[in-house]
Amino acid sequence: MISRYTHLIDLNDHPVSWWNGLLSLAQEIRNNPALYANSCRGRIMGTLFYEPSTRTQMSFQTAMLRLGGTIIGFDNPQTSSVAKGENLKDTTKIVSGYSDVLVIRHPTVGAAKAAARTAECPVINAGDGGHLHPTQTLTDLLTLKCEKGTLSGLTIGLCGDLLNGRTVHSLCKAMSCYPDNHFIMISTKELKMPSYIKDIIRAHGGTFEETHSLEDAIPKLDMLYMTRIQRERFASIEEYEAQKDTYILTTKKMKLGKPDMIVLHPLPRVDEIEVAVDDDPRALYFKQAKYGMYIRMALILTMLQSTKQTELLTGQQYPGISCKNPKCITQAEPYLPKSFTGSGTTLTCEYCDERLLLEH
Ligand code: ASP
C-alpha cells in the first residue's frame, strides 16, 4: 500500500542519507535559529498523545512554535472522543484533515503505521508501545554527532529494559547502519533485547555481546545508554517489582568509565541513575533532551517540504491468519488488514514485527 505522504514510522524506512540530512539541518538550525523562525508560518501540527509524555510532546510543540507554526491536539485521550469509543482510524482521519503534519504516540505496537494508512497528512511516530521511537533516536544521533563527533566505530552500552524499551530498539537499528559499531547489551535474562533486533544488527554486519554486569561493561564504553524499567509494559506489578532497581548507575560505577565516555538516557529517570551522577560532565541526558527540540525542528521542516510517497504495507494477507501478539494494533483495531512479509513457515507482522510460525 502506497501513501501519498512522507511518513516517519520507522527510521529504517528512510535511507541513511536522509537521516544525515536531518542531522545537518538540525545543526544549522541550532546555530542560526532566527533564520528559521518563520519557516512554518501558517502551518498546523496535530499531536495525538494517547500515552503520557513530557519531552517528546513538549519538544515537538516547541519545535513547531519556534518555526512559526501552531499546534492542535490532545495529551489525554480521555478528554477527546476516544473516551466515547472512537477508533484510531476515525480520530486520525479527522485530525489529520485539520493538520499539515500529525504526531502520534500510542501504547499499542504498530499504531503509527495503522494511523498513517488513513491519514490525510504526513504522520510521525512519537512512540508505539514497546516497539519503536524514531524521533528519540534522531535525538540520540544528533547528541552523538555533536558530542562525540562521529556515529561510527563506537562501543555502545545499552542498559535496563531492553525488551520493552522502544528507544533502544530504534537506536540499535539505526546505529547498526553506521560502520564498526559494537553493542554491549546489559540486562537481566527476563529483559533481554528481542531477537529480531539482534538479527538486524547481524544483517548490517554489526557486532554485539550480552551481559548481566554493568560494572564489567562500563570500562569498554564510548557511550552508556541507560533506560528506565517501564512499569507500564509489565503484565503484573510483581514482575515489575522483580526487575526494578537491578541497575543503578552511581558515582562509584562512573569511576570505572573512560574519561570521554558519555551517558545518555531518553528520560524520564526513576532511580536508575543516582542524582549525584548529574554533576559528572559525562552525564549528558539533560543536554540530549534539548538536542531533541532541534532535530524535531529539522524533521517537521523536512516532512512538510517532502513530496516523497511512503510504501506502508508491502506484504501479503493470508485468509484466516492474524498476528498473535496481544500488544499488536491489529488486535485492538480489528478492521485493519493483517499484512505479513516473509514466506514459508515464518511470517512477520508488518505492524509489530512479531514473527508468526505457521504449522503445516
Ligand atoms: N521517553 C522514552 C519513551 O517514551 C523512555 C521512557 O519512557 O522510559 O519511550
Main sheet record: 5 strands, parallel
Task: Write down the CATH class of the largest domain.
Answer: Alpha Beta
What is the chain-wise order of helices and strands? EHEHEHEHEHEHEHEHEHHEHEHEEE
CATH superfamily of the largest domain: Aspartate/ornithine carbamoyltransferase
Helix-strand makeup class: alpha/beta
Task: Give Rg in angstroms.
Answer: 20 Å
Low-confidence stretches: none
- How do the strands line up in the largest sheet? 8-7-6-9-10
Number of strands: 14
| Estimated helix fraction | 25-40%
The shape, in one word, is globular
Q: Strand percentage, roughly?
A: 15-25%
Number of helices: 12
* Bound ligands, named by name, code or SMILES: aspartic acid
Quote the CATH topology of the largest domain.
Answer: Rossmann fold
Measured distance between first and last alpha carbons: 28 Å
Total domain count: 2
CATH architecture of the largest domain: 3-Layer(aba) Sandwich
Summarize model confidence as the mean pLDDT: 96
Please sum up the structure shown:
Helix 2 packs across helix 11, helix 5 packs across helix 6 and helix 5 packs across helix 11. With 360 residues, this protein is of the alpha/beta class.
Structure description:
This protein is an alpha/beta fold and 360 residues long. The chain has two domains: 2-133 and 292-311, Rossmann fold (3-Layer(aba) Sandwich); 136-289, Aspartate/ornithine carbamoyltransferase (Rossmann fold), CATH 3.40.50. The protein is 34% helix and 17% strand. It is built from twelve helices and 14 strands. The longest helix is centred in the last third of the chain and has 21 residues, at 285-305. It starts with a strand and ends with a strand. The mean pLDDT is 96. It binds aspartic acid (ASP). Aspartic acid binds next to helix 6.
